[in-house]
Amino acid sequence: MDVPEHKEIRQLARRFLEEAGPALAEYEAREAFPWPLVRRMGELGFLGVFVPEELGGAGLDFWAYIALLEELGGYASLRSILSVQQSLVLTPLLAYGTQDQKERYVPRLARGEVLGAYGLTEPEAGSDAGSLRTRAYRDGDHYVLEGQKTFISHANVAEVFLIFAKTDPEKGNKGITALLVERKDGVRTTPLKGKLGLKAADTGMVFLEGVRVPQDRVLGKEGEGFKIAMATLDTGRISLAAGAVGLMQRALDLSLGYAKERHQFGRPIA
Q1: Alpha helices, H only, 111-224
Q2: pTM score, whole prediction
Q3: How far is residue 246 from each of residues 50, 77, 100, 112, 194, measured CA to CA in Å?
Q4: Which is it for strands 263-264 and 218-219: parallel, antiparallel or unpaired?
Q5: Distance CA 138, CA 174 (A)
Q6: Rg for the chain (alpha carbons), in Å?
Q7: Beta-bridge mates of residue 177
Q8: Closest Cα partner for 132 from 67, 82, 206?
Q9: Common-topology check for domains 4-114+228-260 and 116-224
Q10: From the UniProt record, which GO molecular function terms apply (predicted)?
């Protein structure tokens, strides 16, 4: 699609990566989260590309987001941070959030002032999301959360968590509810280190031990959590595919560059 806005976002991303690319390598080596780069991504509008301007975003279309993912795809940790923030956190907030929830969370997330996390996977529930064990018990006008999540991107750096928990186990998938939980509610996290890749992208475990969440932080309606989780993952998969295209393009570019510089038998190999 030959759209000026898409060309502009690609050019902006490439200028950003001229400095961010070399810097990211240092964070990867230390398995450290690249906060300065993330802050810059927020300033450039990357973290809220298709978020409406009135909610703090860039107000571009979904294809601009895809273009950005392709450009960042060759720098996988940065692509991962973008995917989590937009596909897994902002997308469900925009689709299912109340006006109050949107005004409270979306602008700060879109500007990169805070990061979000998507809390679905558990030690005993991965692809079979319906078997999750985290519970949300009603207590007056609050829910009390008990359980744990694992392999959660942004676990140790997020301030806002989209947590999926069972409010009515007898209803199966229809008994799962999505809740917006804040770190200050009492969320405890620990990092997972030693990954083979995405070493500058935070991953960890999330522990919910008597965490109290007011009922006005239910995303959508009680019992709609599984539907929200699956719809959100559909968008997330598209972002992964776009990033993979960018990763392959960078691999090809690096290979071509090496082939032109590499000499054997007195001449370049290409």
Answers
A1: none
A2: 0.93
A3: 19, 13, 36, 23, 25
A4: unpaired
A5: 16
A6: 20
A7: 165
A8: 206
A9: no
A10: acyl-CoA dehydrogenase activity; flavin adenine dinucleotide binding
The one-letter amino acid at 251: A
For the cut 90, the answer to whether the pLDDT of residue 127 exceeds it is no
DSSP H helices, the chain, are: 4-30, 35-43, 62-72, 76-83, 91-96, 99-110, 225-261
Architecture of domain 116-224: Beta Barrel (2.40)
Residue of 68, 179, 186 lying closest to 134 (CA atoms): 179
Torsion sign across C-alpha atoms 19, 57, 64, 230: positive
Residue 168 in tokens: 């009515």
State pLDDT tens for residues 27-63.
999 999 999 999 999 999 999 999 999 999 999 999 9
Q: Once rounded to an integer, what is the mean pLDDT over residues 6-29?
A: 95
4-114+228-260: CATH number:
1.10.540.10
Place of tokens 């083979």: 196
Query: CA–CA separation, 13 vs 36, rounded Å?
Result: 16
What's the rounded Cα separation, in Å, for the pair 175 and 128? Answer: 15
The closest of 162, 248, 153, 148 to 202, measured between CA atoms, is: 153
CA dist 133 and 148 (Å) reads: 8
CB of 39 within 8 A of CB of 112?
yes
39 within 8 A of 81, measured Cβ to Cβ: no
Q: Is 216:203 a contact under the CB 8 Å cutoff?
A: no
Kindly list the domain boundaries of the chain, sorted by start residue. 4-114+228-260, 116-224
